[in-house]
From TrEMBL:
Domain of life (superkingdom): Bacteria
Source taxonomy: Bacteria, Bacillati, Actinomycetota, Actinomycetes, Propionibacteriales
Name of protein: Flavodoxin family protein
InterPro entries: Flavodoxin_CS, Flavoprotein-like_sf
Length: 171
């Protein structure tokens, strides 16, 4: 399962590329965070979670409102109230493999921050174990940089290989 939060479409593109990279390993569900509400993330072989980097971290209610003010596509008036932070508050404890990703401006992580670090922290806190270091995919303003979708797909293929090579008893 790939769960993502996206406001300008970049993170959605990355999530879909990750989903495509995992399809050769089984059925993949790629869901925006609002649609993942109430889903049992503990029932999946691999949970991949990602979101945009806003103000050096995961989105917040304030940063989501700002995204709407900046003209984010496809965001209803209700959307800013629910994001990854709220989703993590609702999900059950897990025990399976997981991975975290983000999208961020193409600049030093020291300057931009990385939402994937906070996502990884929350995954661990919920009992999941990371099978890869958190990954960032780069954007320029509200556009995914060239080759980032292909890089996301390749990253996901690597995640799939890790899962296939890990005995179920260890997962």
């Amino acid at each position: 399962m790939v769960v993502y939060e996206s406001y300008f479409g970049c993170t959605q593109q990355v999530a879909e590329a990750i989903g495509a990279g995992l399809t050769c390993y089984g059925t993949v569900h790629v869901l925006p965070v609002a649609q993942a509400r109430g889903m049992r993330a503990i029932d999946v072989d691999l949970l991949v979670v990602g979101g945009p980097t806003h103000a050096h971290a995961m989105t917040s209610a304030h940063s989501r409102e700002s995204a709407v003010d900046r003209g984010a596509d496809g965001v209803s008036a209700e959307a800013p109230a629910y994001g990854l932070r709220e989703w993590f508050d609702e999900i059950e404890q897990g025990a399976g493999p997981a991975a975290a990703f983000d999208t961020r401006i193409d600049a030093s992580a020291l300057m931009t921050g990385r939402a994937s670090k906070g996502i990884a922290h929350r995954l661990r806190r919920h009992g999941f174990h990371l099978v890869a270091e958190p990954e960032s995919f780069l954007v320029s303003h509200d556009t995914l940089l060239p080759d980032e979708a292909a890089r996301a797909r390749s990253w996901a293929e690597g995640l799939g290989r890790i899962i296939v090579q890990t005995p179920a008893s260890v997962r």
